[in-house]
Amino acid sequence: MAQIDIVVGTVYGAAMLVAETLAAQLQQAGHECQIFDEAVLEDLDPSRFLLVITATTGQGDIPPNLQPFAAALADRAPYMKGWRYALIALGDSSYEHFCGAGRQLDGLLQELGARVLLPRLEIDATVDDEPEKVALAWLTGWENTL
Ligand SMILES: Cc1cc2nc3c(=O)[nH]c(=O)nc-3n(C[C@H](O)[C@H](O)[C@H](O)COP(=O)(O)O)c2cc1C
Predict the structure, then answer these.
(1) What whole-number distance in Å separates Cα of residue 54 and Cα of residue 10?
(2) What is the C-alpha separation between 22 and 17, in angstroms, rounded?
(3) pLDDT for 60-97, tens place per residue?
(4) Atom of ligand 1 nearest to the CA of 123
(5) Phi and psi dihedrals of 4, rounded to 5?
(6) 119-143 confidence digits (pLDDT tens)
(7) What total of structural domains would you count in the chain?
(8) Ligand 1 centroid to residue 15 C-alpha, Å
(9) What pLDDT is attached to residue 61?
(10) Residue of 29, 64, 82, 103 with fewest CB within 10 Å of its CB?
(11) Is residue 99 lining ligand 1, measured as CB closer than 6 Å?
């Protein structure tokens, strides 16, 4: 069974609801999960699977609660070889920078050498008003490979 750190970027709570829904499913399947709503890079263990779930705010911006984590990645550019991750981006396609925060973080993690397990999931609030259900269906497709 896998050990999973879920790092959340949220303003209004939708990304946290997605995180809680997936954590419950993963725990039920026997995985060990912890959710970080104020993630600090140093607190994360590279041997654990990293699941990033982030909304976008402002104009393609990373939510404030995830900015220190993103800044640590960008400023210190740690070598992240050996890390494995997946990422869910919540956004709204009526904004110019759709899923800007998730796309930025995904790019950053890949530049740093982390290995993405499967393509980023993007959830558009104009299409899906229950992002946790979309995320759960996505998870069901690959949770057995963890
Ligand atoms: C003030 C504001 C700015 C936003 N800016 C963007 C944006 O630039 N790009 C995008 O894709 N979505 C944007 N969104 C949409 C949110 O990312 C989306 O509604 C998301 O589901 C919110 O998740 P949360 O409840 O976890 O904060 C914005 C929403 C608000 C309220």
Answers:
(1) 6
(2) 9
(3) 999 999 999 999 999 888 889 999 999 999 999 999 99
(4) 21
(5) -130, 130
(6) 999 999 999 999 999 999 999 888 8
(7) 1
(8) 10
(9) 98
(10) 82
(11) yes
Q: Is the CB of 59 under 6 A from ligand 1?
A: yes
Statement: residue 4 has pLDDT above 90: yes
The rounded Å distance from CA 26 to ligand 1 centre is 26
Radius of gyration of the chain measured on its C-alpha atoms? 14
Q: Separation of 138 CA from ligand 1 center, angstroms?
A: 21
Which domain range does residue 38 map to? Answer: 3-145
**Pocket flag, ligand 1, residue 104 (CB < 6 Å):** no
**Most ligand 1 atoms within 8 A of CB, residue of 92, 94, 98 to mutate:** 92
Task: Please name every residue paired with 51 in a beta bridge, in sequence order, or none if there are none.
Answer: 6, 86
Looking at the CA of residue 131, tell me the nearest atom of ligand 1: 21
Question: Quick one: tokens of 49?
Answer: 């699977």
Q: Of how many residues is the chain composed?
A: 146
- The pLDDT value given to residue 127: 98
Q: What is the CATH number for 86?
A: 3.40.50.360
DSSP-derived 3-state class of residue 48: coil
